[in-house]
Amino acid sequence: SPGPPGAAWPTDPAGRTIAADRLAAAAADRWEREHGAGTPRVFTPTGSYSDQIGTWEPCKGGYKAALINGCLKIPDGVLPATPGHAQIGWPDGTVQRRPIVPPSAIFEQRIPADARASCGDSRNPELTVTSAILVDAPIDTAWGPATVPMWQLSFADTAVRGSVLAVAADPTTAAPEPGQDIGPRPDRLTVSPDGRTLTVSFIGAPPGTGPCGYTYELRTAQRPGVVAVVVVATSTAPPQSLDGPLESTVGCPAVGALRTAATTLDTALGERPAIENRGHLITR
């Protein structure tokens, strides 16, 4: 593995390349275990599982935290007689039927018990649900955008409504989160006509050299069913500035720039998904 949780990434270029290769390999192997041929598509939301519709009125600031933490009071009879199942659909035509679950089940799955234990206090007042309907809405998943069933909730004492996922996510192996990212996360992918050259775009440091500059390299792990990519960022600062006086005296602008990095695969990408190290699809 690239290192224990919380460990800093290597600062030398060779060490960072090795760490990135291991990170990409771990992501690719994890994907093949969970998404291999013959296994049902895993439903892993990567976007928000709950959201607010509208703006909270003055003096209702605690309601935002209440919705985030699932502090809902749902009187008997408010939830409609739900269908046993509803559909999740992806743009490639894949459709799955999943059992509908109440909002409380989603929050129990997603919110730690200690956060839910604070429901009802002044910072997390309970939101009383007055009505609930099922709607279809878009959400981002590890397999890209999908249309999923959502609860649309109305509350007492506010015009703001809430939306909450109405189907449970599948359990997955969590991707390790290093203490320090080795490089930017890819935002978009383009593929050459022959399918072998991958170019990813991302927000990085503005082009340049010196203490504020970075070069970017794309490392991959290629498997029969997936290609995992990791962007490696390497500082262009002179070695003596990494721990010397320049580190404290040079102020780099907090401005991002659109950057790219490319690599050539052994074989064409074809229909294989391209993922980043958390296992999320990179948009083409």
Descriptive report:
It is a single chain. The protein has six helices and 13 strands. With 284 residues, it is of the alpha+beta class. The chain has two domains: 13-39 and 175-275, no CATH class; 50-165, no CATH class. A hairpin with a 5-residue loop joins β3 and β4 (95-99). The radius of gyration is 23 Å and the shape is globular.
Structural class: alpha+beta
Average pLDDT rating? 84
Proportion of residues in β-strands: 25-35%
What's the total helix number?
A: 6
Distance between the termini: 28 Å
Q: How are strands sequenced across the largest beta sheet?
A: 1-7-6-5-2
One letter per element, helices H and strands E, the order comes to: HEHEEEHHEEEEEEEHHEE
Query: What is the count of distinct domains?
Result: 2
Largest sheet descriptor: 5 strands, mixed
Short description:
The protein is 19% helix and 32% strand. It is α+β, with helices and mostly antiparallel strands and 284 residues long. It is globular, with a radius of gyration of 23 Å.
Please outline the helices and strands.
Blueprint: H1 13-35, E1 50-53, H2 61-68, E2 72-73, E3 85-89, E4 95-99, H3 103-110, H4 113-116, E5 127-141, E6 144-155, E7 161-165, E8 188-191, E9 197-204, E10 214-223, E11 226-235, H5 239-243, H6 245-249, E12 257-264, E13 274-275
